[in-house]
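name: query_chain
kind: protein
chains: 1
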Amino acid sequence: MKPLLTIHGGEYLVGERLEKQFPRSEVWVPVKDTGTDLLLTNPADRRKNAGIQVKFSKDFLPGEKKIFQQNFAAQGWFNLPPVDTIRNSTADIWILAPYSFEDRNVYCVVLHPRKLADRLETLGNRDKLYLWITRDKQRCFAVRGLSRKEQERLAAGDYHGLETERDFSPWLENWTVLEGLLGGPSKGAAGPGSPGNFPARRGPHLS
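structure:
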């Protein structure tokens, strides 16, 4: 039988990350495409929920020079809609998810669509975003428009002059904005192994 519903691989991987980060929440896949790829809900309070738009990128790091492979965990390349479309998105949160070929994992840059639109306008990159995540998984930079020499300086750990509009590190694996929408801390925010403040129920749709 032909499947009635399919889900993009990147959305599935992000959904798995959400289930691990918010183990007492539910992750849903909308049947109709309305600009929201995933819905995260708090079963203890149905008024607490978050619509999420997911943008996924494969890892371009394996084809890079050795200096980049040694100093970065992932390199993502995102083709994005116009900034006005992003700013007026029906989703509460956008997650930019570059995949790490080496780690077999997605890293999540989590931010409001208006913040993303503003940052793209500031950068002048209205439809494309190249995000590189450092090997220690602590820093994330938008590198489109940098010269190769500047990229190599970034790989060497010299961030001078780049800790401005190009720095997406504040949103790398930062789940606080979702915690606010769901009304409780994530697993990471509550401490190692802590389930957070949600009832012991798992979302059935990505299990």
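note: Strands lie at 26-28, 38-41, 49-57, 72-79, 93-100, 105-106, 109-111, 128-134, 140-142.
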